[in-house]
Amino acid sequence: MRKTTILGTGSYLPSKVLTNQDISKILDTNDEWIVSRTGIRERRIVAEGETCSDLAYHASLKALEDAELTPNDLDMMIVATLTPEKRLPSTACLLQDKLQAKKAAVYDIGVACSGFVYGMSIADQYIQTGTLNHILVVGSEVMSKVLNWKDRSTCILFGDGAGAALLGPAKTPAKTGEKIILSTHLFSNGSLYRLLEMPAGGTAMEWTPDVFEQGYHLVKMDGKQVFREAIESMVDASKIALQKAHKTMEDVNLFIPHQANTRIIDAIAKRLKCPEEKIFVNVDKYGNTSGASIPIALDEAIKQGRLKKGDLLLIATFGAGFAWGSALIRW
Ligand code: COA
Fold it and tell me: pTM for the full model?
């Protein structure tokens, strides 16, 4: 079977910055509380009229440029988002139109914050089996449109943005310097879905004025429980990835956890005995960008020179559903 390599990455963050100070002008909160409980200092917010597929488009162009490929080279595009541009059609279709990726099969996947790692795992299967060659996996979120800006315990946590990675087949045998996906591991537990959901907006709940008044179409979360589940799940997924590869945390050069909250990241690092210098963190600048969190972090880590040839990269993700996972990549 072939191996999958990362051919290029890109990310795009809207230019408008919303600081904790800005939020404290509309809500009873403050910078000190938000920073101490979450590590988040600011997040990005879309401009008027800027949409999920716009963010995805900018991130995708950069990933294509990085890979030195054109939209015509794409066999498939997978968009991970919990904030699709429309209920119909998929955001991936809108992205396909913007890119004019004429040959690409496209679809969205709905696994919330874990969508990018799920998408990467799906793409890996097509490439390993030789079914497809070039697959663009994109995480794009306009979280600001689905937050309840009256709920100070959730709206402070999230931000908008997009990240993309272009995957393709490695040379056989893989050449040194190729970034090889060694494994991906996916998990879920739907029985806890109520802890983090948008109750309305699908087909289960009537779209009544009361639903909108109560904010049932917006993100609703039991923060404390989610906090605990996120730590347990990402620790487990990381351990499984390492065990299956007969590696330990000492072999890992860089750890990119889902960027939800520095307290969650710190707790995971402690449990995995991962020193601070091996962890990539940018949640302070962007908040939790959900499905875009991992690809944005990956792109920034690469651009900052945090990954060298031969490094072992561990990724862990977690999100609503619950759905979580991990990936090991040899740089
Ligand atoms: N500013 C000021 N006070 C706030 C606040 C805010 N933005 N949000 C909540 N509070 C208050 C609460 O009302 C509560 O006040 P009370 O004691 O008078 O009732 C107090 O702070 C403590 O609230 P609590 O919910 O216990 O805080 P916490 O330490 O659990 O932190 C979260 C709340 C949301 C930051 C935390 O639970 C968390 O990060 N959870 C994980 C969320 C997450 O990452 N989700 C996405 C996963 S993909």
Answer: 0.97
